[in-house]
UniProtKB/TrEMBL annotation:
PANTHER family: 4-HYDROXY-4-METHYL-2-OXOGLUTARATE ALDOLASE 3-RELATED, BLR3842 PROTEIN. Substrate binds at G103, S104, I105, L106, R125. It holds the Pfam family RraA-like. This is Regulator of RNase E activity RraA. CDD domains: RraA_family. Mg(2+) binds at D126. The keyword Magnesium applies. One of its GO terms (molecular function) is metal ion binding. InterPro entries: RraA/RraA-like, RraA/RraA-like_sf.
C-alpha cells in the first residue's frame, strides 16, 4: 500500500476537494472527482487515505445465494478484514444503488479496524446507523436490499471505476463534506502543498470580499499589491 507521510496527510486534512480539483486541473487531470457520491452524514472533517478497492460485477443467481457469506474468503467479507488501517475502502458498484454495497455491521468493522473511510458509487443499507458512526462514509443514496440481489463481489485491490473515475490501489482519496476526489499517488505530496497555499490565499480573498472589495485583480491576483498584502496577511495569521 502507498505510504502517505504524516505531513501530507495533515495538509490534505485541511483543504477542500474543490481546491484539490483545481490543483489537479492545472496538471491536466480533469476527471478526478467521483460523480454522484455524497456523504452519508457530514463529519466536519476530511477523510484521507490510500485507496484499497473492491470490484463488484452483476450478480448471477446460481453463484450469489445467501449461503456464500458463510465462506470466510468471500471477497466482500475478506476485503473488510484485509483493508489496512488508515486506508480508504473504495467500491465499484457500477453506479447502481438498487442494492447495497455494504451495511452498518461491515462499516462498523472497518471503523473498529482503523480504516479511514469507505466510498461506494452504489448505496449503503442501514444508512442512518452508518451516518451515526465516526468513520466517514460516502454513497449515492440509501439502499435497503442486500448486495447479493444485484452485485457479486469479485476482485480485491485491483484498478476499478468508481463514479466514472479510475481508482488505482494506493491512489490517495480525499473526501470532505461535499465530495470525494482521487489524487494519483505520485502527485500527493505536491498537490497537498499547493492546496494548502491555495487555501491560504482563498481565505485572504474571502476576508477582503466580505469587506466589500471587488474580485477584479484580487481573484486571481493580477495586481502586485495584492500579493504584497497577502504576504503581510499570512505573517499576521501565521499561515
Amino acid at each position: 500500500m502507498t505510504t502517505l507521510s504524516d505531513s501530507t496527510r495533515d495538509k490534505l486534512m485541511r483543504v477542500s476537494v474543490a481546491t484539490i480539483s483545481t490543483a489537479l486541473f492545472k496538471r491536466g487531470l480533469r476527471n478526478q472527482t467521483i460523480q454522484d457520491v455524497q456523504p452519508v452524514a457530514r463529519k466536519g472533517r476530511n477523510m484521507v487515505g490510500p485507496a484499497y478497492t473492491l470490484r463488484y460485477i452483476p450478480a448471477r443467481e446460481d453463484l450469489n445465494k445467501l449461503e456464500v457469506f458463510r465462506n470466510p474468503e468471500h471477497p466482500q467479507r475478506a476485503c473488510v478484514e484485509s483493508c489496512p488501517p488508515g486506508a480508504v475502502l473504495v467500491m465499484d458498484s457500477r453506479k447502481n444503488p438498487r442494492a447495497a454495497s455494504a451495511g452498518s455491521i461491515l462499516v462498523t468493522r472497518l471503523m473498529v479496524r482503523g480504516v479511514a473511510g469507505v466510498v461506494t458509487d452504489g448505496g449503503f443499507r442501514d444508512s442512518p446507523e452508518i451516518g451515526g458512526l465516526a468513520i466517514p462514509a460516502y454513497h449515492n443514496r440509501p439502499s435497503a436490499p442486500t448486495n447479493l440481489t444485484l452485485h457479486q463481489a469479485l476482485d480485491i485491490n485491483v484498478p476499478i471505476g468508481c463514479g466514472d473515475v479510475a481508482v488505482w490501489p494506493g491512489d490517495i482519496m480525499v473526501g470532505d463534506d461535499e465530495a470525494v476526489i482521487v489524487i494519483p499517488a505520485e502527485l500527493a505530496d505536491e498537490i497537498a502543498e499547493e492546496a494548502v497555499e491555495m487555501t491560504a490565499y482563498e481565505d485572504f480573498v474571502t476576508e477582503r470580499v466580505l469587506a466589500g472589495e471587488s474580485i477584479i485583480g484580487l481573484y486571481p491576483a493580477t495586481q502586485p499589491r495584492n500579493l504584497e498584502e497577502f504576504a503581510a496577511w499570512r505573517a499576521k495569521h501565521g499561515r
